[in-house]
Amino acid sequence: MKLSQLRKRLSGDHNFKGHTILGSMCTEPHKIAVKTFKRFLSTNVGDPGLFPKLIELEKDYIKSLGQLLSCEAPGGSVVSGGSEANILAMWTARNRAQKHKREVIISEFCHFSFDKAADLLGLTLVKIPVGSDYKIRTDLARKAVGENTMAIVGIAGTTGLGVCDPISELSEIAVEHNIYLHVDAAFGGFVFPFINGSSKFDFSLPGVMSITVDPHKMGRAVIQSGCIIFREKEIEESLKIDVSYLSGGRAINRSILGTRSGASIAASWMVLNYLGYDGYRKNVQNVMKLTDWFVNEVRSIKGLGVKVQPECNIVGVCTTGDINLKDLIREIRKCGWAVSEWPDYIRIAVMPHVSKRSLVKFLADIKRILEFFSVNN
Predict the structure, then answer these.
(1) Domain boundaries in the chain?
(2) Which strand (E) or helix (H) includes residue 67?
(3) Distances in Å between the alpha carbon of 117 and those of 211, 254, 308?
(4) Nearest Cα to 95, choosing from 260, 254, 257?
(5) pLDDT value of residue 372
(6) What pairing do the DSSP bridges indicate for beta strands 314-319 and 251-253?
(7) What class does CATH assign to 3-26+278-376?
(8) What is the helix (H) or strand (E) element at residue 57, kind and residue range?
(9) Residue 224, preceding bond cis, omega within 30 degrees?
(10) By CB atoms within 10 Å of each CB, which of 58, 144, 229, 274 scores lowest?
(11) Distances (CA, A) of 107 to 112, 158, 212, 274, 309
(12) What is the pLDDT of residue 47?
């Protein structure tokens, strides 16, 4: 079997360089991340004694992310992605809570990783409705707090529309009732810090105990790269699995997975230090400029609109009038576009791999489809 044969077999798959992926929150990794990842492919920091320098690099990276999120001495680690990070946060909160406290107050639009966490850890999710802005209603969240409340979760960059929950208000509730507050900023963690006037969601809010951030999204790192960041190193002490048989010696494991890619750590660290905060700010400015243009174009097309004014580079495209959304999505996919389908809108993620040229072509295809619908209805 030759590599060329494998490429041929997989040639029908989408790829980020093909400019057809418009619905994914992941993107083409930065070239420096790819180069670094290849160099450290065989490293497994699940056996930390073998790679002490990589462990130090991970601590350095977590400290840099902590500083970005208003924390000088954070705890945390690089894990496989946002799902693992969110589950680790809930595991931590459960281990720190009294045994009868197993309820988690969270938005009805939470990521499915929290449903996984609830199933794995024996938790009950108390899902709170959102308001007209698609953000958790803090008035209802406050009323939901009870003697069994273990944690509250806020979202900075919701999976559906990229909006930021009112984390400052959730922080007030958490502090008032001494409840663990976790922020799922898997997407927004590398976006909102670089948008002027964005809502606060980080450790500058006293109630926030942990934050999920995904370098493999707007952080431009490789898949799989996620991070769980804790306000203090002491918080992660509740996650301790002693492993005695490792080649590098006895160690404490704090992740769900036993194997952890050192290559992901090195690549994440490298792209952060290569781009710097200024580089990330420029990336965010570029995608936001394209997002604003795209929203204006969508609004100019009869039969289309947007669910909410985007707070980041996520756009919910909805239909107006009697246009059937599912019919529209079916035809869009026939044209080769990979979009994210939601009950009453199409999610478009304007990521670094998405070009204005591809969006122009996408909009042209939508116009043609809508014209076809108009003639045949």
Answers:
(1) 3-26+278-376, 31-274
(2) helix 52-68
(3) 16, 16, 29
(4) 254
(5) 87
(6) unpaired
(7) alpha beta
(8) helix 52-68
(9) yes
(10) 274
(11) 11, 10, 16, 36, 19
(12) 96
Residue where the block lists tokens 């204006």: 296
Euclidean distance between the first and final Cα of the chain, in Å?
51
Q: Please tell me the predicted confidence (pLDDT) of residue 19.
A: 86
Per the listing, tokens 């960059």 go with: 157
**Among candidate residues 342, 344, 341, 333, the one with its CA nearest the CA of residue 366:** 333
Class of domain 31-274: alpha beta
> Residue 12's pLDDT is what?
87
Tally of CB atoms within 10 A around 232? 14
Mean pLDDT by groups of 10 residues along the chain of 377 residues = 89 89 97 97 96 97 98 97 98 97 98 98 98 98 98 98 98 98 98 96 98 98 97 94 95 94 98 97 98 98 96 96 92 96 97 97 96 80
| DSSP class of 198 | P
pLDDT value, residue 375: 74
**For the residues of 324-355, what is the DSSP string, one character each?**
-HHHHHHHHHHTT-B-EEETTEEEEE--TT--
Largest CA distance in the chain: 72
Q: Is pTM, for the whole model, over 0.90?
A: yes
213 forms beta bridges with: 185, 227
Helix/strand/coil percent split, the chain, to 5: 45, 20, 40
- Amino acid, single-letter form, for residue 109: F
Token reading at 282: 């420029």
Q: How far apart are CA 115 and CA 137, in angstroms?
A: 20
Output the six-digit token pair for 299.
Answer: 């609004």
